[in-house]
Amino acid sequence: MKIERLPLNALRAFAEAARTESFKGAASRLGVTPGAVSRQVKQLEDRLGVPLFARHANGVHLNETGRQLAKDIDSGLERIATGVMAARERARQVPMLTLSAPPSFMQLWLLPRLADFDAKVGGIDISLDASQSLTLPAWQGDGARLAIRYGRGPWPEAQNHRLFGDELFPVCAPALLEQRSQPMTPAELAHHTLLEVSWDSPQGVTFPGWQAWLDAAGVVDRVAPPQRRYSLYGLAMDQAIAGRGIMLASHPVAMDRLESGVLVRPFGERHVLASPMTYDLLTPPTGEAPLAVARFIDWLLSEAAAFDQGTLGKAR
């Protein structure tokens, strides 16, 4: 079977355009013009003989063929990146690990704590891969690639280390509560914009949202569904901090913002919705991790246990 060689520049332009569903966004990331991206994508479509985007007056959207090709290209690029990283590590003196994790969890929970790792343990370079992927990474086989996933275990083809569970509760900017003389009731959410985070759930598990929370609070028929939906916690949280609505937040990613005071819980400790999902650290299914990587795993599990038990100090 003859394998056709496709133009790499066109594949790269398509991959970037697929991530943003925007030729303009892809052009910004690639440092070229939107017209150049459009021509590269059109060249690829002509070579394949099928359209990859549905083009509208207000932009472009991936069609089913384009969506599947984007997944295949991302998988191939990840394997290439893994091979390059492995080659780089073999030439380095300092051990390195690559950690893949959901973007919002990485930004709002993990990154604020990495300074503690450097201070207490150190001696290892960490490459962070913020990924919404629900699949496992391509293990290098040397224990130097780790993944944090939010889902419902067990995860096949990996060693599973539970970090902590999750619970959801409303949060908002303090300004929304400043003029109140009485505590807010769930029914009063009808007077506020509801912000919700939603994405494709792994393993067929439905991610609980406002509908489930309102039902548990007994006001599902008196409060309208969420008016704003986001795929990333960071985006929704920025809107909540700005006072543009009330967000249904995940405990791990909201806790630091609550401690800093930029967000508050309008119902206090009441009306908490348990999530069926957990945060898990996944490591290669076989083999022992290098000593430096094992130390990072031990630190992360210890940090997660302290957080889970509510004993994590503010001065970390």
TrEMBL record:
Entry similarity comment: Belongs to the LysR transcriptional regulatory family.
CDD domains to which the protein is assigned, alphabetical: PBP2_GcdR_TrpI_HvrB_AmpR_like (cd08432)
Entry keyword Zinc: no
A GO term for molecular function: sequence-specific DNA binding
Signal peptide: none
A GO biological-process term: DNA-templated transcription
Name used for this protein in its record: LysR family transcriptional regulator
Organism encoding this protein: Halomonas eurihalina
InterPro entries associated with the record: LysR-type_TF_proteobact-type, LysR_HTH_N, LysR_subst-bd, WH-like_DNA-bd_sf, WH_DNA-bd_sf
Every HTH lysR-type domain range: 6-63
Keyword entries, A-Z: DNA-binding, Transcription, Transcription regulation
